[in-house]
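Hi V.,

You were right to ask for the full record rather than a summary. Here it is.
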Amino acid sequence: MTDQYVATIDLGSNSFHMVIARYHGDSLRIVDRLKERVRLADGLDDVNLLSQEAMERGLACLRLFGERLRGFHATQVRVAGTFTLREAANAQEFVRQAQQVLGFPIDIVSGNEEARLIYQGVAHTQNTQGQVLVIDIGGGSTELVIGRDFDCKLVSSRSMGCVSFTRKYFADGRLTEENFEQAIEAAEYQLVPVMGRYLGLGWDQVLGSSGTIKTLLEMCSAVTQEPVIDLPGLLHIKTQLTAAGSLDKVDIPGLSEDRKPLIAAGLSILLGVFRSLNLDKMGFSDGALREGLLYTFFGRVKHHDIQVNTILALSQEYAIDTRQAERVKQTALSLFDQVRDGWQLDNGFVDLLGGAALLHEVGLHINFTGIHRHSAYILSNADLPGFTQEEQKALAALVRFHRKALKLTELEPLNYLPERQLFRLVRLLRLAVALNRRRQDGVLPPLPLTLAADDELRLSLPADWCDRNHLLLTTLEREQAYQAKVDWKLELVRV
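Predicted structure:
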């Protein structure tokens, strides 16, 4: 990537951030930043519906971002939705409108993927020492990661953030010892399931990232003149806040007006983390999710593919027959290449189809009966580093429909790709699986696949091959019948 501009957008629960950078050779230079406080999480009601007012605040911000990104191609922009969009029951409605006003696709990342991206942002912008614990307190969630160099070793995303804790423990603006203790204990409770693993793995350095921790650093530094957050400093801030009694009376050096409404919640969460993990001090890194997204561009340029590593790890963990998986993949990609132009399948679908082919038998770990359902369940619920939530859903959907009857009403709508394109990939995967039923190399001759009409496939089969492979021909005819039941026409032609 030479002299190319790229942009990343972090759709946070409190603020939306955009970073624009220029790649030159092997270096990356940030050339512009935009930030708008939209308070998206404020719009979540008791049943996790996002209010129209909150959506409008977000859309207004994205219109501004969209103006700045005029002239950018989709391959130059990555947009990540985080906790609030993971939680909102009507997130897809917002995403649909947001993509229209912004002009670029939006990925909703899982909590663990968010944690990994945050770590990459820190690791690429900070000189780290040994094993590092990174803590990021956002509007809706808190991410904790232990890593070394550029490798994450342990990740977790906990459902506690400044906006959600403010609404629950400081909604009336009162700052009392009782409110603080309730909030701190709630944070500690959130960490109980994971604290043992973190303490067991250990760390040499602790770094915080993002706005809440940066504000707490500035407040601590105003007293100590040191660029570090320590436990005495945090307790001193708590004393200052409780002495004020209410948010409207708070006046502390280092605390800006726009950060004031959320500071009590942020402080409580960090104190809960300090208590649970026995921390006494931490540093700060300017790198965070948006910088982590930037470096995913850089990683792709250097052919570092986290998704490939994830697929390999799953293959090993679930003892997948990798030779068979590779046969299915090669057949699927060969069929894909033959109809790519006619079906307008872009290159981004190659990895998705290939990944589904490599993982379609992951469900054998449970049982052959219902393997397609078992495989889809595993892929829907596994932690898949490198995959966004939408990519993970698409992968699971492909695998779910790779065999047996096509119950398409069970398909969940996806933003990642149109339903029609997903169905086309399903058809290619099903054919590849059927053609490799013998699980042997050297069985398949060249098999021309053409489009007789827009969605009508024609597969040409050598007559002598058909005479020698009755099992495969019967399998293909059964597949033809399955597709016909959902009005997908597949013509098998002896040549």
